[in-house]
Amino acid sequence: MMIMLANWWQKNIKRQIPQCCDLCGLSLDSDSIMTLCAACQLALTPQPRCQRCGLTTLSPMRECGRCLKQPPPWHALYCIGDYRYPLDHYIHQLKYQRQFWLAQPLAQQLATTITEPAPLLCAVPMHWRRYLWRGFNQSDQLAQQLASELHVQYWPSLFHRRRATIPQKGLHKSQRRHNLAGAFHFTTPIHTLGSHVAIVDDVVTTGSTLKPLCHLLTAIGVTQIDIYCLCRTPEPREA
User: Fold this and answer.
1) What was the pLDDT predicted at 29?
2) How far apart are CA 76 and CA 165, in angstroms?
3) One-character DSSP codes across 79-129
4) Spatial distance between the Cα atoms of 39 and 51, rounded to a whole number of angstroms
5) pLDDT score, position 238
6) CA-CA distance, 59 to 34, in Å (whole number)?
7) Are 42 and 136 in contact (CB under 8 A)?
8) Which of 54, 86, 154, 164 is deepest in the core (most CB within 10 A)?
9) Residue 96: inside a domain, yes or no?
């Protein structure tokens, strides 16, 4: 109900109010996707990245040296940018301030980076206890909007989080991996999903949340797994 009210507000009232840029306060251009003017939109200018892991590089490349040595279990990662201002500001508003309407412009911005969309999208699941506490799953909201933008199918309950885990934020890489061991499974017995599937999440740091989901998909014959996320952050160093 809260999400429906937020979307109604965005479509029927908020759009009737003159909009100003979130960063500088100047009037927005009519074709602005995010609530940013043309000048501030440059803050979201794409950076050179490794197409596989999504980390920044000096020039665009299919696979960086790190991926050639130890490739992640997915095949391509698409993101808007790094986890920094202003993207971190928008994600915080979406996740913790219930600004549900932001899912649509964020998904629109992300869609512009995806060259060959997967025909099927799924989202990183949230344990039911955290869902009850927060009231929504931000990855689910993004996946719904992104599927609409890309004109592809979205499977909202493909995965299930079988046990609650402590938040990944603040954990080291090995702790994150141990924290999620055995945490996910398919909601129903799945034999095939097709060869190309994308997983949607808000922020990717070490990828430890995504890896078990990728392994589940690979086990049933998915040969191309993409990651669609808003932000990619550098992996933290081990302590």
Assistant:
1) 67
2) 27
3) -SEES-TTHHHHHHHHHHS--GGGHHHHHHHHHTT-SS--SEEEE----HH
4) 27
5) 45
6) 26
7) no
8) 54
9) yes
